[in-house]
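*** Backbone structure tokens ***
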Amino acid sequence: MKARLQSLPYGLRLLLATLSLGIGTGLVGIACHYLLEGVQGLAFGQDKGDLLQQFNHAGGFRRFLVLGVTGVLAAGFWYILQRRYKILSIRRQIDLAGDSEPAFLAHLLHAGMQVAIVGAGASVGKEGAPREVGALLAGRLGKAFSLAIKARKVLIACGAGAGLAAVYQVPFASSLFVFETLGLAYSWQNLLLVLSSTYLATWVAQPIVWHGSIYHISLVHWSASSFLQAVLVALLLTPFALGFRSLAKRAGRKRRKDGTILWALPLAFLVLGSLVVFYPIFMGNGQVLAQTLLSSQSIPYLPLTLAVKGLLVYLLLSNGAYGGTLTPSFALGIGSGYLVTLLMTIVGIHLDPALGMLLGATVFLGTTLQAPLTAIALSLEFTGQSLSLTIPLVLATGVSYVIRMRWEKR
């Protein structure tokens, strides 16, 4: 079979590898969707309402019990897995393309556990898993089609973007993510490969995964005052976003992998479980928190809620859990943008709370992902907003980018 593939023209092999990757990552997105829903249904019951209703109907003791058991299982799983295998990040997979291959089954199980703990209510993002499996699949396809090392590296980056696109149904934002966050060089060939894989993955997963925009909010309009709002949100929120990014990076560097994970990670889950007995708003990756605010529902002690949510992400990641920070960043940005708008109202400046939330989300995402264009696209695609809203979002991310660059130089 491999000999037959090698006999094909190189351009055709590259095309077939890209198409196979798009289809494969689309199926990965479907698998992640079913796994997440399956764990949620098993843990909290088959509730037809939204996530917060599902968590509420389960009851406080069940929420505590689910998270306690999840912490023990996750700690044992990652301790055993990391004693036997080295878990490679996407960047590491790109660097080692052609030299060393990650253990396929180990990385697949690793990704599955990430999705499972989010389904059980852990305060981390689910996007890491499909990105990692997409990159893993791309590495194997690059080898199977006997592609050059340079092309394999590009394909692995495409796989990460396609996995993100499939699970969130955000093909354009995922394409930008590949270039901005993964640092893929801009060229016509790379652009074609990225767009082909991300849009094909989105299309394959769409019948199962897509049910409209992830977050529901009415169309937001902007006016001349939106420019002032964009600047104020960027100035006030960028330092907090930088702080959260620093915490997340520190958690990744200092993540427990030795025997201490066996007590530290269950303890972290018990802390989360104790909180959600009374405050189910802390359940999950932040989607519940963000949607509550976008639906104009009030959250008492919102500043404290946002601070605790950010610390919970750090607590789980630093004590051995794996997961993303994309959705937590989005939720923290939504809440922070809303707070800034309320603060302006108190001093006599009346601005649009809905726009403030979207500006905050974009600033937070742009800072934590270090990808301002991706952040704009994600905010628009997550909430189904029109492209006209790009103008104030660009201004906010531009101001935030300047602040971030000056901070990093210092």
Remarks:
- The CA atoms of residues 87 and 375 lie 27 Å apart.
- The first helix runs from residue 2 to 6.
- The chain has a mean pLDDT of 91.
- The chain is about 75% helix and 0% strand.
